[in-house]
Automatic annotation (TrEMBL):
InterPro entries named in the record: Alkaline_phosphatase_core_sf, Sulfatase, Sulfatase_CS, Sulfatase_N
Sulfatase N-terminal domain boundaries: 54-475
Chain intervals for the UniProt region annotation (Disordered): 1-31
Name by which UniProt lists this protein: Arylsulfatase
SUPFAM superfamilies the UniProt entry points to: Alkaline phosphatase-like
GO MF term list: arylsulfatase activity; metal ion binding
Family statement: Belongs to the sulfatase family.
Domain of life: Bacteria
Keywords: Calcium, Hydrolase, Metal-binding
Organism lineage string: Bacteria, Bacillati, Actinomycetota, Actinomycetes, Mycobacteriales
Name of a matching Pfam family: Sulfatase
Protein's organism: Rhodococcus koreensis
Length: 790
């Protein structure tokens, strides 16, 4: 109990003792009397950061390879990143995980990814500890630690640390940003998004109810606006409080789309092709001291499924289109640099640049998800496996649309290997191409470089080292508990001394890696690797060994020369795997398994008029791989009524049912192929029905029917043999009475806008039917979609 009078026991100067049940006074540090005149006020001290504590900004890019920025050898214009490198440090031997969610979990917690719960991407839930796809209750985040040290904490951009089933209303938000230590959040909880028409944006803990995006909208600009606004707003209210800004870009993940002015800047700059770009970037890296002269560069990957052809062997048409794809990518990198510049300009205006620690890095290496020839139909490219041979993964479009808001493109994997210069392989593999990425760190006030120090550090480091390094540099303590639970001990180590003194040895001497059966283990300059290609041998790795001190690009396997080292590191990998909950490695249908209680998502649902757009995953369960029926209930549709009854999807794939010019219209956008059917509406219609019959060949046959006031339903139109929307499509969820966010059919949007229905719409009911697509097809499609969605 607090003090009463002078000793808290009552009776002093005749004051009455506080009754024992009056618990509201517990912890009060002043004096309590019967009146305020007899009492001394007290205020709980605010948590304040140490005097002079630096701001911290972490800028994380998605799917950007080692050589994609100027300080790491790129020809792309990145003056703002060059500025960070000129004042700070480049880590040339920094490693991350091979896909996104694990990297983000490791970065924000300092825990190895499987221990953090993210052995894979947050798009499934097989029911094992290392693959729970939610941050554990005892895993402290960097934001939580910094907030406990008196920091303001803000996050913008991509999150992807909450399972997709938990993105809908009514689901747990335990792994959302605000529940993980951030004061504010704005961005996309998904693993990817459209740059012109995001399927769903979140502000703090709520969906931003967007019907139509502005004509000049671009998501990188939007999240940059929010980042700058957070900084300015804090300073307008508090001149001294340090802040942590976690700025996680949605770029460079596909679908690739760029603003016209940025795209114009790179038109024609990649006609020389990926072989020349790789040579030029490697020469720049050697000249900068990243690698000594004579270091071997990895040749083009030749393994089936990973190979890239010589540029000179492509046709002229292929060269033109493939160069366009890279122009889009370069324009997006340029856009990121502009975003960095806006953050720096804000810090400059506030006079806080010198005392701000800025980290810039990528979550994993450049990707091969565009396939051998790239694609103009991004979500169709996701659909691999035993689908029919006539499945078109690259729907032709006007070449001038490449990079625009109308289609989603991705470059061929030859550009992915150029992105990862000088390394082998890509995102998703444990070879260097998947896990070695650029890393910049700048803090002029606290890490000023000595004369002659170029800021280049060649020491091995890992993504788990970011949190302990930042805390060490800022001189901050870590709480021992989270929500009453003892906090997990971090796996990462501080590399602050390496930054201060290049002669110091690296404190991070060994590290395991695993994703999708691919394995890796680093120890003291040796790296053991396996490339998983045979599902029947997932636990029988075919080890390769590399001396990465002399062969950083992993070009020469020396396993046959050092069998004892192979055995030593293989045993070390096994011990690390058990310790970090890597096992079990998935090799059966559990690879796409979800919680049994998700089956209820396939039950019929009635969506009332006025309901906000449904979340993507919830919407997809109602239709994918199965028959389904859509019943639209209206009051009598009068002459002149028009507009959208229901829409599901966007330019990347979907379907829309609408009334126009006295006709019922139904259109299906199969990854860019648009087909229509229609019929006269007639009089007295009070309901419209769409029936989808799924086939084993991953097609739908559609029937449209009208219901009159007497309850008689009549079939009026059909649309057969349409490609099913599966994998990650439709990307935008179901909207009732309007074609919200991205347009399903472009010419309809250009004619009528979002085309809100003018009649009296009551509801739309979805009734899912039986799944018709064979299980092996579903499993293979879903496995690839999950891996590529990161």
């Amino acid at each position: 109990m607090p003090e009463v009078g002078s000793n808290g026991t009552g009776g002093v100067d005749g004051q009455q003792q506080i009754p024992s049940g009056a618990r509201g006074y517990d912890g009060f540090g002043g004096r309590i009397g019967r009146t305020s005149a007899e009492s001394t006020p007290w205020w709980k001290p605010e948590t304040k950061a140490p005097a002079g504590a630096p701001n911290i900004v972490v800028i994380l890019i998605d799917d950007m390879g080692y050589s994609d920025i100027g300080p790491f050898g790129s020809e792309i214009d990145t003056p703002n990143l060059n500025r960070l490198a000129d004042s700070g440090y480049r880590l040339s031997n920094y490693h991350t995980t091979s896909v996104c969610s694990p990297a983000r979990a490791a970065l924000l917690t300092g825990l190895n990814p499987h221990r953090a719960g993210y052995g894979s991407v947050a798009n499934f839930d097989p029911g094992f500890p290392g693959l729970r796809m939610e941050l554990a209750d005892d895993a402290l985040s960097l934001a939580e630690i910094l907030r406990a040290n008196g920091y303001a904490t803000h996050a913008v951009g991509k999150w992807h640390l909450a399972r997709d089933t938990n993105l809908a209303p009514g689901r747990t938000r335990d792994s959302w940003p605000l529940q993980r230590g951030f004061d504010s959040y704005y961005g996309s909880l998904e693993g990817l998004n459209s740059f012109y028409y995001p399927n769903e944006l979140i502000s703090d803990n709520s969906v931003v109810d967007v019907e139509e995006y502005p004509s000049d909208y671009y998501v990188t600009d939007d999240i940059t606006d929010k980042a700058v606004a957070r900084i300015k707003s804090l300073r307008a209210h508090d001149a001294d409080k340090p802040f942590f800004l976690y700025f996680s870009h949605i770029a460079m993940h596909g679908p690739h789309q760029a603003k016209p002015e940025d795209l114009a800047k790179y038109r024609g700059r990649y006609t020389e092709g990926w072989d020349a770009v790789r040579r030029n970037r490697f020469d720049a890296q050697v000249e900068s001291g990243f690698f000594p002269p004579g270091t071997p560069i990895a040749e083009r990957n030749t393994e089936p499924g990973y190979d890239a052809p010589p540029w000179d062997e492509l046709t002229e048409e292929e060269q033109l289109r493939f160069a366009r794809y890279q122009e889009v990518y370069a324009a997006m990198v340029d856009s990121i640099d502009q975003s960095v510049g806006r953050v720096l300009d804000t810090l400059d205006e506030l006079g806080e640049t010198d005392n701000t620690i800025i980290v810039f890095t990528s979550d994993n290496g450049g990707t091969a998800e565009g396939g051998a020839v790239g694609t103009r139909s991004y979500f169709s490219q996701f659909v691999h496996g035993p689908v029919p041979s006539d499945w078109v993964r690259d729907v032709p479009h006007d070449e001038e649309l490449i990079g625009s808001e109308k289609i989603g493109v991705h470059y061929p994997r030859g550009w992915g290997q150029a992105s990862n210069t000088p390394f082998r392989f890509y995102k998703g593999q444990t070879f260097a191409g998947g896990v070695r990425v650029p890393f910049l760190l700048s803090w002029p006030a606290g890490l000023r470089r000595a004369d002659g120090d170029t800021g280049l550090r060649k020491h091995y480091s890992y993504v788990t080292d970011i949190t302990p390094t930042l805390l060490d540099l800022a001189g901050l303590e870590t709480p021992t508990h989270r929500n009453g639970l003892p906090a997990q001990e971090r796996d990462g180590v501080s590399i602050a001394e390496v930054l201060r003194d290049a002669t110091q040895p690296t404190p991070h001497t060994e590290q395991y890696a695993e994703f999708g059966g691919h394995r890796g283990f680093y120890r003291d300059g040796w790296k053991l690797l396996s490339l998983h290609t045979d599902p029947t041998r997932v636990d029988d790795p075919q080890w390769q060994l590399f001396d990465v001190e002399s062969d950083p690009a992993e070009t020469t396997d020396v396993a046959h020369l050092f069998p004892e080292k192979v055995q030593e590191l293989a045993e070390a990998w096994d011990r690390a795997a058990w310790h970090n909950t890597v096992f079990p490695i998935l090799n059966d249908r559990k690879a796409v398994q979800r919680r049994p209680d998700e089956r209820r998502l396939a039950e019929p649902v009635k969506i009332l008029a006025g309901t906000p757009t449904l979340e993507r995953y919830r919407s997809s369960v109602l239709i994918q791989y199965r028959d389904f029926t859509i019943d639209v209930a209206t009051h009598e549709i009068a002459a002149g009524d028009e507009g959208v009854l229901v829409a599901h999807g966007d330019p990347h794939g979907g379907y829309v049912l609408y009334v126009e010019d006295g006709r019922i219209m139904f259109a299906v956008n199969s990854y860019g192929r648009v087909a229509h059917t229609s019929a006269p509406l007639g009089e007295g219609v009070v309901g419209v029905q769409v029936r989808a019959e799924a086939t084993e060949s991953v097609r739908w046959n559609f029937t449209v029917a009208l219901t009159d006031g007497a309850g008689v339903t009549t079939d009026v139109a059909t649309l057969d043999d349409q490609f099913q929307l599966v994998g990650m499509a439709p990307w935008t969820g179901i909207s009732v009475g309007v074609d919200a966010r991205g347009p399903v059919v472009w010419d309809l949007r250009e004619r009528r806008g979002t085309f809100r229905f003018t009649g009296r719409l009551r509801s739309v009911t979805y009734t899912p039917g039986p799944v018709r697509v064979p299980e092996p097809v579903i499993q293979e499609v879903e496995e690839l979609a999950e891996a590529m969605a990161d």
